[in-house]
Amino acid sequence: MEVSKVTRIIIATHGKLAQELANAAEMICGRQEELITISFMPSDGIEDLTSRLYKALDGLEDEAIIFTDVFGGSPFNAASVVSLKTQGLYHVTGVNLPMLLEVLTTREGHTAEELVEICIKAGKDGVIDTRGLFSRGNERCR
């Protein structure tokens, strides 16, 4: 019986956001394999962060996606360097819980490239101005 490989997911953020996003996702979806979190704390240096990203890729047999929290931040900068030097590694910034849930529940049977497209859409769709959400005639209420 052949075991299907799933895309490794690495979340790298400022503070403990990465761990808490993973905790929330696992609360909803159950325990996840190939899900790694990296917290960039005020006392950490960029070199340490880059080193931890490379360590998170140890033993990678297939593809991986790194999710970072904010464009231009230290996790983004380190992940950008690592992703440019690593084949099969994708990088998405602006991580949110809807995007993470989507990638975790659809990663089996999809390539990392396909997952990037799927999760970006889910991330955008998960941001909603709720003021008119329950008004009459709203598409989402039908």
UniProtKB/TrEMBL annotation:
Keywords: Cytoplasm, Kinase, Phosphoprotein, Phosphotransferase system, Sugar transport, Transferase, Transport. The keyword Kinase applies. InterPro entries: Bacterial_PTS_sugar_comp, PTS_EIIA_man, PTS_EIIA_man-typ, PTS_EIIA_man-typ_sf, PTS_IIA_man. One of its GO terms (biological process) is phosphoenolpyruvate-dependent sugar phosphotransferase system. GO terms for cellular component: cytoplasm; membrane. Gene3D superfamilies: Phosphotransferase system, mannose-type IIA component. It is found in: Cytoplasm. The keyword Thylakoid does not apply. GO terms for molecular function: kinase activity; phosphotransferase activity, alcohol group as acceptor. SUPFAM superfamilies: PTS system fructose IIA component-like. Residues 6-127 form the PTS EIIA type-4 domain. PANTHER family: PTS PERMEASE-RELATED-RELATED (PTHR33799), PTS SYSTEM MANNOSE-SPECIFIC EIIAB COMPONENT-RELATED (PTHR33799:SF1). This is PTS sugar transporter subunit IIA.
